[in-house]
């Protein structure tokens, strides 16, 4: 069954479930779990993952009576890989999420984002507060806290790979050669479990897939003003950071509190790598549930 409304197309299989949705001619795949009548929780993955990032988290949330919507985002979905870098600016990425919520009939929803999905979640919290029941961020500090940490910590060294990704074509060639061996070894070395690394690399080596993923970084560097528009956040925020994150340091994580004016909870996971949803799914699901239902 297909439902059409405005510029979106929602494809359903089981009653009320959204398996894919469209926006501006692009088609996004969605892992939709739980009952359509339950509270919606949208989960946004980061680089170089996909909806599979959240599989174990989603199962636990569904058991807690949430409807989970985990999309393969722009550049990752097979049917949504624009070639132009400017198609990956934050307003476009955020609009994709709102189109998913509309397709699912969710006027308001809980939102969680990891890594780059965290940046999108911060942006939505700043610009579309009325759509969010709550927001949870894993790993990614508030953008202004990251900017401040560039002058007060080793964050520039941690973020140096972002500059390497700005070179056209070469990162794609290097990271996908020999079946993605270099990317796979780097992911595992940073703490990502091998089965997830295999799954992520298998998708990344598909034609055009890595360019779509890297265009998130390229668009952010070309259009930094979008990150600067993320002001203080009034929505209830849960921020989860892990002490063995090789990309995002403690200074920015601790500085995030200065940029949240609403209810705020900061959780540090000791001895946990950057890959929080993949390595601590039960704990993540518990934290997300507590955050969405603080009085339960």
Count of individual domains: 1
H/E element sequence: EEEEEHEHEHEHHHHHHHEHEHH
Strand content: 15-25%
CATH architecture group name: 3-Layer(aba) Sandwich
Largest sheet: 10 strands, mixed
Provide the spatial order of strands within the biggest beta sheet: 1-2-3-4-6-5-7-8-9-10
| Rough outline | globular
Which percent bin holds the helix content?
40-55%
CATH fold field value: Rossmann fold
Distance between the termini: 36 Å
Instruction: Please name the fourth-level CATH homologous superfamily.
Output: Alpha/Beta hydrolase fold, catalytic domain
Rg is: 18 Å
The computed structural class is: alpha/beta
Q: Compute the number of helices.
A: 13
Number of strands: 10
Mean pLDDT: 94
CATH class: Alpha Beta
Q: Pick out the low-confidence regions.
A: 1-8
